[in-house]
Design brief:
By secondary structure, this protein is of the alpha+beta class. It has a four-stranded antiparallel sheet with strand order 6-7-4-9, with helices on one face. It has a three-stranded antiparallel sheet with strand order 2-8-5. It has a two-stranded antiparallel sheet with strand order 1-3. It is 27% helix and 26% strand. The protein folds into two domains: 1-34; 49-186.
Amino acid sequence: MTRQRNFGRSCFAAVSVLLLTAVSVGGIRAYLTDRAETDNNIVIGQNETVVTEEFPEPPDVPDEGGDYVKKVRVENKRSVPCYIRTAVEFGSSDTGFEISLSGLNTEKWIYISTEENEKLGGYYYYKNVVMPGECTESLFEGVSFAKDDQDAYVNQDGALDVIVYEESLQAEGASGYLEAWDAFIRK
């Protein structure tokens, strides 16, 4: 009778081991072959901005101290809201003539000098987010010479280059234009 008990126990142990192995292999196989699929639609946002100008070919020189019309805006051409900054330079500034921008829009734009902030300085910053398809308000309305310099400049037959350089960055994640540009510069 002892042999039958040992055989019964051995048979039970073998069956138990086989069942545990089958369950383990099945569990491991299920774990290794399990998969879940999710479709994530990702839209890539792009910012593209362009300078738009109203700068009619001046037929005549304006009266002394008068302005040449030049209205500068920046348009957001793409799909994401942007912050915008511009730099304005005169290509003929080495002539020694006093040339300035007239009609500066200080309500919507702010100029930061390099003395105020070495990293952000030298640019006009648009204070608001520019949404896709929209334009900033005009940065300035014209270009003017000091009264004493205008005749001398016109008589030298020189061309006046007004260079407008603009940059943009996505507005997402920033609470304002200064925070956005400061974070961008630090990268």
